[in-house]
């Protein structure tokens, strides 16, 4: 049931629209199936499975709208769901930001966001992968905690103006933290894939175990400004806020125009078109990228296409709601799903080789906003931080707290490595000068 | 930014921009009238639960519990003169947890029939047996006698769902109008209401019916100086509470004046949203021109609405026994307060520091009669006279620390998530000697008074933290002398609590709430309160957070 075909989904959605008596009606089906396994202390701690399809119906009477949901699809339930959305709409206040529903749209056909190998994952597969991870830690006499989650899903949309959309997708992600038995070393690895045939939990666990062993007996350095090499897991996270995600999450036109964003201009307006970053910074989104294939339409039905957000350090586009795009007279762009930061060919190891003095940061953690005016964030290094001298890692160092803005960080760019996939994005390791560490932490 | 977070509900997405994550909104969107319709009665639920317990035992479970949950939520979101969204949701289903072959298994279903629940129970046993093949330690449960057929209801005066939506919208739009009249550029306001109708049954012989309510009114105002491009925000000083709509009754007796010269008011069991927004409008404009702090060591005087979050992060979390033991290592982290560290008797804080865990406190977010594994709730000491004396633990953890009793702090955010150890209310006890905020401040030569919670960050073992706030005032020679900006303090948990120099008396004590505390993988949300009175900490490192772009 969770993965309906295009025909099965559209048959249900057509029926939903046939029950509508509203001025406009929008219906979306979301289906998802998958499971997860959690481990700690080298054994499975919990396991779960999820299997659900839900229908969301939004009805409009003039500028009033109401939304209802259900997860059964017999005629009577569908009819009740539509009636409920209409009853709620009639009671709702008029929205001054009402926009008529979109008509038919052209979406790029995408089949690569779905992989049969991932959709076929079963409890045995999960136990085998997690078992390989914990067995490796048993052999090495280290302790691991990990999380594996997989899903296969689909989204189908249809509205009374003739819009029709459908796409399937899959995703599997794994993360593991490995600690030495004395509690003095810790390492982490995380990755995600559309196609599970690329996934190997033991390979990732080995990386985390090596970081754990090599981070034992860390020395303290004085806090201050340092040249750092930030690995992809220090720039993006599957589980927490991250410096690059907050930057990309701040490219909203409305906040900028309203004067409450780092992109707001003195006296009014926004900084689109201005060079705000080092000229080597180029970030774009493309749902057809082979490494991060994504859904080619947004939740409100707008097409997701290739869009350049930052080019050679210049802000080229901002995303917005449909209402704000019309009001501000700007291109009608939804926020992207995944995005791609262009990079070079160097690996993290290559970046280390080219560094006279610096710090390798493998992961940043508990990142929270300090000042939205400058996009200043604070957080800490975690799971392996190392001192670099003359192109070599010399010794592990104690963790630091940082206070830094991704805007300042991308102006202090020294070098860019080769992008890798993380959280459905492509992000390169970065070498940054004058990264601000403000205090030491005893945490391992 | 997780690309799979595909939001199909456009209206909810608009509301979610204000508070980005509100997991309570899982469930079907329903007509608001549905939130007042009764659910199944206790006799029906007992029959359904027995079907699950019997099926689990028949399949080979040595223990089973069944949770039948009906979770009702309503959120109202506004900005300036408009309503952005009103969403009412209902989620109804059953979670069955079992022990088979000494291993946990869990399965859930929204087919709330005897057959549906029995099937979930059988699946839970099947999962337990499969996982038992790789299990290294058998589950040991602390004993808990069956409580028979019992009920517990939160002592609320008015169910917030009974209040017409129009009245609630009028309140929020009235708050917005006041702020706009007073010259702020933007305001978002919201009202969250939660009702958990939970039925728990176990093979120990408990059949527990509970009715729990939570409410959270909140806003954020923003002021902009167009000429300089500077903008500042101030969020409400309300707390989410385990109360009904009476929390919005704005009783004079529940107001606690902040220190002279601060224009801060604290709230106990009721909240004056209109009064707070008026103060916020004044303060947010003052923030635009406030003096930027000179970094250095200051004596901090922390208001309960601020200190609550510091207690949450630096005491509540590190004393969760599952973190201490390594079960959260891959996500939230572990803890400095290990069993070995506790055995050394190192002071957690100064002798003034007495911190209790409490699942009974009326009006608090964590108060219930029984937890989500049927344990009768209680109050217990965590830190006594500055020394760590106990942790927060549930039935399968008590034996690890040589105890025979759970603390009753097991919780699941819904019927479809497995219950696990969560933070109880964790509160700093007020000072025993009479001491007002003004008297406390009189003794401070160079300090900063902080109210409201702002930026917060702490490492994965809970040593190093950094906190901001909503409003900051300079204290010079025993008096508040004006507002400061760009303030954040950094400290080490033990140094900070050992620098605790004075705590105001009980008349100043009030609750702060964390409405949406995340833990676990997949992540679950829980709500918890933290009480304290205004407290002084000496010689804390303050940094200046102002930066320049370009």
TrEMBL record, chain A:
Family, per the entry? Belongs to the peptidase U62 family.
Protein name per its UniProtKB record: TldD/PmbA family protein
The protein's matches in SUPFAM superfamilies, at most eight in alphabetical order, are given as: Putative modulator of DNA gyrase, PmbA/TldD (SSF111283)
Instruction: Tell me which residues make up the Metalloprotease TldD/E central domain.
Output: 135-215
Query: At the top level of its lineage, which domain of life is listed?
Result: Bacteria
Residues annotated as domain Metalloprotease TldD/E C-terminal: 223-438
**Which Pfam families does this entry report, sorted A to Z?**
PmbA_TldD_1st, PmbA_TldD_2nd, PmbA_TldD_3rd
What residue stretches are annotated with the Metalloprotease TldD/E N-terminal domain? 29-89
From TrEMBL, chain B:
Full protein name: TldD/PmbA family protein
**Domain Metalloprotease TldD/E C-terminal stretches:** 295-542
Similarity remark: Belongs to the peptidase U62 family.
Residue limits of the Metalloprotease TldD/E N-terminal domain?
64-128
Q: Does the keyword Repeat apply?
A: no
- Give one Pfam family, short name only: PmbA_TldD_3rd
* Keyword terms of this UniProt record: Hydrolase, Metalloprotease, Protease
């Amino acid at each position: 049931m969770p993965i309906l075909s295009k025909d099965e989904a559209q048959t249900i959605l057509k029926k939903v629209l046939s029950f509508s008596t509203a001025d406009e009606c929008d219906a979306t089906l979301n289906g998802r199936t998958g499971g997860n396994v959690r481990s700690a202390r080298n054994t499975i701690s919990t396991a779960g499975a999820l299997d659900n399809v839900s229908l969301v119906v939004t009805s409009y009477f003039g500028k009033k709208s109401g939304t209802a949901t259900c997860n059964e699809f017999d005629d009577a339930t569908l009819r009740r769901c539509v009636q409920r959305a209409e009853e709620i709409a009639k009671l709702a206040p008029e929205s001054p930001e009402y926009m008529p529903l979109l008509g038919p749209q052209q979406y790029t056909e995408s089949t690569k966001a779905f992989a049969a190998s991932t959709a076929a994952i079963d409890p045995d597969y999960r136990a085998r992968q997690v078992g390989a991870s914990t067995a490796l830690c048993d052999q090495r006499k280290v302790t691991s905690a990990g999380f594996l989650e997989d899903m296969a899903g689909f989204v189908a949309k249809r509205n009374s103006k003739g819009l029709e959309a459908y796409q399937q997708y899959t995703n599997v992600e794994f993360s593991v933290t490995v600690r030495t038995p004395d509690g003095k070393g810790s390492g982490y690895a995380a990755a995600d894939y559309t196609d599970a045939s690329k996934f190997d939990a033991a390979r990732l666990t080995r990386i985390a175990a090596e970081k754990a062993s090599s981070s034992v007996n860390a020395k303290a350095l004085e806090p201050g400004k340092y040249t750092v090499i930030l690995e992809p897991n220090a720039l993006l996270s599957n589980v927490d806020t991250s410096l690059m995600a907050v930057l990309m999450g701040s490219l909203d036109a409305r906040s900028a125009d309203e004067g409450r964003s780092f992109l707001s201009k003195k006296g009014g307006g926004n900084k689109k078109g201005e060079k705000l970053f080092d000229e080597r910074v180029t970030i774009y989104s493309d749902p057809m990228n082979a490494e991060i294939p994504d859904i080619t339409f947004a939740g409100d039905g707008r097409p997701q296409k290739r869009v350049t957000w930052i080019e050679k350090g210049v802000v080229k586009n901002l995303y917005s709601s449909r209402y704000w795009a019309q009001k501000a007279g700007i291109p009608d762009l939804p926020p992207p799903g995944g995005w791609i930061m262009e990079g070079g060919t160097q690996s993290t190891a290559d970046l280390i080789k080219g560094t006279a003095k610096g710090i390798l940061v493998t992961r940043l953690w508990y990142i929270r906003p300090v000042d939205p005016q400058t996009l200043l964030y604070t957080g800490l290094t975690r799971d392996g931080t190392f001192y670099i001298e003359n192109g070599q890692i010399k010794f592990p160092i104690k963790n630091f707290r940082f206070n830094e803005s991704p805007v300042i960080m991308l102006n202090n760019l020294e070098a860019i490595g080769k992008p890798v996939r993380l959280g459905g994005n492509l992000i390169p390791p970065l070498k940054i000068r004058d990264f601000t560490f403000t205090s030491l932490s005893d945490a391992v | 930014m997780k690309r799979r977070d595909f939001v199909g509900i456009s209206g909810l997405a608009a509301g979610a921009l204000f508070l980005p994550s509100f997991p309570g909104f899982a469930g079907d969107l329903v007509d608001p009238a549905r939130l007042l319709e009764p659910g199944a009665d206790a006799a029906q639920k007992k029959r359904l639960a027995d079907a699950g317990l019997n099926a689990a035992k028949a399949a080979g479970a040595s223990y089973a519990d069944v949770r039948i949950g009906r979770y009702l939520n309503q959120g109202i979101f506004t900005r300036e003169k408009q309503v952005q969204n009103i969403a009412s949701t209902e989620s109804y289903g059953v979670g069955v947890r079992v022990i088979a072959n000494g291993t946990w298994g869990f399965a859930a279903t929204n087919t709330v029939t005897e057959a549906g629940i029995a099937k979930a129970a059988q699946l839970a046993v099947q999962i337990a047996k499969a996982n038992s093949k790789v299990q290294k330690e058998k589950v040991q449960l602390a004993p808990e006698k069956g409580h028979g057929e019992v009920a517990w209801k939160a002592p609320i005066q008015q169910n917030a769902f009974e209040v017409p939506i129009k009245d609630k919208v009028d309140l929020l739009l009235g708050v917005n109008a006041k702020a706009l009249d007073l010259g702020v550029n933007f305001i978002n306001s919201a009202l969250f209401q939660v009702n958990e109708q939970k039925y728990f049954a176990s093979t120990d012989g408990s059949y527990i019916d509970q009715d729990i309510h939570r409410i959270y009114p909140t806003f954020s105002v923003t002021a902009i100086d167009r000429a300089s491009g500077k903008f500042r925000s101030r969020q409400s000083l309300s707390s989410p509470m385990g109360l009904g709509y009476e929390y919005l009754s704005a009783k004079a007796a529940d107001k606690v004046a902040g220190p002279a010269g601060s224009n801060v008011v604290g709230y106990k069991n009721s909240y004056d949203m209109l009064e707070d927004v008026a103060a916020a409008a004044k303060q947010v404009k003052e923030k635009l021109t406030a003096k930027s702090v000179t970094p250095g060591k200051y004596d901090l005087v922390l208001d309960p609405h601020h200190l609550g979050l510091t207690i949450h992060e630096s005491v509540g979390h590190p004393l969760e026994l599952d973190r201490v033991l390594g079960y959260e290592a891959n996500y939230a982290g572990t803890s400095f307060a290990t069993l070995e560290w506790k055995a050394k008797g190192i002071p957690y804080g100064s002798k003034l520091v007495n911190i209790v865990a409490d699942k009974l406190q009326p009006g608090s977010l964590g108060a219930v009669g029984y937890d989500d594994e049927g344990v009768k709730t209680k109050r217990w000491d965590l830190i006594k006279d500055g020394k760590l004396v106990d942790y927060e633990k549930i039935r399968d953890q008590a034996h690890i620390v040589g105890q025979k009793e759970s603390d009753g702090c097991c919780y699941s955010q819904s019927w479809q998530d497995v219950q696990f150890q969560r933070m109880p209310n964790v509160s700093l006890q007020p000072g025993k000697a009479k001491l007002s905020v003004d008297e406390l401040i009189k003794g401070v030569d160079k300090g900063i008074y902080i109210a409201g919670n702002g930026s917060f960050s702490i490492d994965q073992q809970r040593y190093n933290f950094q906190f901001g706030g909503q409003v900051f005032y300079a204290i010079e020679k025993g008096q508040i002398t004006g507002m400061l900006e760009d303030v954040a303090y950094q400290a080490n948990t033990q140094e900070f609590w050992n620098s605790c120099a004075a705590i105001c008396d009980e008349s100043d004590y009030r609750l702060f709430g964390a409405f949406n505390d995340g833990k676990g993988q997949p992540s679950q949300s829980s709500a918890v309160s933290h009480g304290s009175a205004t407290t002084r900490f000496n010689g804390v490192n303050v940094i200046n957070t102002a930066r320049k772009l370009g």
